[in-house]
Amino acid sequence: xAKQAVKTDSRPLTEEGDFLQIKAVDHVHFYVGNAKHAMYxxxxxxxxxxxxxSGLETGNREFASYVLESGQARFIVSAPYSPSSPLASHxxxxxxxxxxxxxxxxxxxxxxxxxxxxxxxxxxxxxxxxDDHGIYRTSAIHTYGETLHVFVDRSDYNGPFxxxxxxxxxxxxxxxxxxxxxxxxxxxxxxxxxQWVDFYHQVMGFRLLRHFDDKDISTEYSALMxxxxxxxxxxxxxxxxxxADGKRKSxxxxxxxxxxxxxxxxxxxxxxxxxxxxxKLRRNGVExxxxxxxxxxxxxxxxxxxDEDYKAIQELGILVDRDDEGYLLQIFxxxxxxxxxxxxxxxxxxxxxxxGKGNFKALFESIELEQQRRGNL
Length: 377
Ligand code: FE2
Prior knowledge:
Elements: E1 24-31, H1 35-44, E2 49-54, E3 63-70, E4 73-80, H2 86-94, E5 97-104, H3 108-117, E6 122-131, E7 134-142, E8 148-153, E9 166-167, E10 178-187, H4 193-202, E11 207-212, E12 223-230, E13 237-244, H5 251-259, E14 263-271, H6 274-283, H7 294-297, H8 299-303, H9 310-316, E15 319-323, E16 326-332, E17 343-350, H10 360-373
Parallel strand pairs: 1-4, 5-8, 10-13, 14-17
Antiparallel strand pairs: 1-5, 2-3, 2-9, 3-4, 6-7, 7-8, 10-14, 11-12, 12-13, 15-16, 16-17
């Protein structure tokens, strides 16, 4: 692949350049050790509603699976019944993590042809599954590590999620206001970031949005580099991180040591009211990273006037950043499984379409404190 083929440009792609015509992130599929527990976690801690189930009772002899939704965000959690399942070997290597980032398209065959003809590696050819609810169409390609992009067309399907899944009707959730997936970040190995940026540009027609180098994202000890690619309509944003040299171990290296391959580092969930969302999540037991109080001493001077109350922001440990388009509020959880791998970000945007560059230093110092506690710095 050509080096430096991608130019930084935040304008939407033309129809011609946006050959995939992705409508949105359809779902994020986690392979986990215990799907029932994971369902309970997203339901009770994050306020997702369990909407569908697949398992032995529905004719699925291989794995148990739950679909949960909050606004437009849709998470699937699945766990194998037997050690011979591919889900079991995936879980043995990686622990809990994201296996599939599914993208809704109009034509899964076209999406598969366009991507594989440009060098994407096929995971499965266009396929149709059907039941009483209609036809569910998918195709899939590989991306970083063992992660897949599944293309989904559900326009002829009106079931609760996909064939073998049946509706869950007895579980109500107390919503925390999570509205959609904002972005999903991938961690790749040292020196591989540009290769994956090129993959998204050339194979999937994404555009390079912004990039940060190790001067932006470094602390005394560790560093990372990051570039952001987005699809034509801007609804799908994938930052890609690689470790950069530092005195000590980068947080990206720690991830790679425990996930063992590249993979999804965090899913950012957008809310229209981060104060309410984070207050609920905290009450439900979600653990967030905390930056030192000194961060808040200079915050009003750095950010200026905002709609939210600075005192409430500090109490909840929320971070704020501003760019020329507006500002954003964000907060990051601790890893959500035992291995220090995947975590969640909650974000609210007021005009700003960036990713909180001004918070990186304070945030990474707080991450490193936690790495040190784990003996991994
Ligand atoms: Fe993020």
